[in-house]
# Entry
Amino acid sequence: MIKVGIIGCGGIANAKHLPALSHQAHRVEIVAFCDIIKERAEKAAKEYGTPDAKVYTDYKELLQDESIRTIHVLTPNVSHCEITVAALEAGKDVICEKPMAATPADAQKMLDAQKKSGHILTIGYQNRCRQDSLTLKKMCDDGELGEIYFAKAQAIRRRGVPTWGVFPNKALQGGGPLIDIGTHSLDLTLWMMNNYKPKSVMGASFQKLGRLLQPGDQGNTMGVWDPNTYEVEDSAFGFVTMENGAVIVIEAAWALNTLEVCEALTQLCGTKAGADMKDGLRINKIMYDKQTVIKPDCRTPKGVDFFAGASAKSAEDTECEAFYDAVEGKGSPVVKPEEAFVVTQILDAVYRSAESGQLITF
Ligand SMILES: NC(=O)c1ccc[n+]([C@@H]2O[C@H](COP(=O)([O-])OP(=O)(O)OC[C@H]3O[C@@H](n4cnc5c(N)ncnc54)[C@H](O)[C@@H]3O)[C@@H](O)[C@H]2O)c1
# Structure
């Protein structure tokens, strides 16, 4: 059995990683849990751990356990680098939550540690594993869209400010919606385009609503936030040119007065066809001189009850399975760290451009 250690036992641990790991029970067992809030680690250990699972409040102590082979890094953004580097140096394979890091310098340290250690590092961009994403990726790789020269990376909430954890805390998260959800849509977009060579970035960010809207006047879908401790942007936008001339527009918001809401989507325009994911996957092209829209049915097929393989896997199960296949030497994880590094570079450039008003070139 592959022995697993969990670092960070909060929202994403309980919503994604622990349930997904429970579906890999034939080859993994979770033997160690760490959280600076001990009760969270204890609760997760009780629910998902082996009977003798250990509980820690210091991740460095957990990493000393040589029997542990893989680490899931599920802590706030700014700590991803330190914990991931330490885990790789301790000889573990690592899946770290998105975004890879808060800065390119930190992401570079993670890449260096991965190369030096020879261990696996992947980043939790599970949106790549949705059925619509997997279908669109195949179409892109098969050339169905032709050359993709314009794209939008979209993650826009009308009112969706996360109110658990430390999300509006700049020092711990590195930023707001751009680094939190814009990161998913940019990752999807670059992956679909298979283009990781940015040339320049112009960005703008706003903090118009986070500090302004008082409890009782927020209409938030995720509880009430405290405007007095709201430190990050509430929306951000980027205009990215790529070395080959292609352009990507990034739109990210936790709060924006718009009805055009969407989460972790990409829109692609190629020479042969276009695609968007707003109303399910839609391909637009000209067929027999007619403007045509094709809508592949990407819902999880239900199949026939009781027969193995009847249902498609969830995104988080697919991500987890690919990671453990890679750990067993049977393939690659879904996300390469070099790809997540470029996402971090571009998002950092949007922030720097927004702050300076200048064009950032690579
Ligand atoms: N893939 C996704 O769609 C997705 C969704 C939500 C969050 N996330 C990512 O997951 C990460 C955590 O977010 P969350 O929503 O679970 O936040 P959270 O606050 O609910 O959980 C984080 C946990 O880490 C613990 N922690 C903080 N510092 C620690 C340390 N040094 N050592 C051990 N434990 C520590 C906290 O006490 C907390 O319990 C973030 O990077 C976030 O971007 C990803």
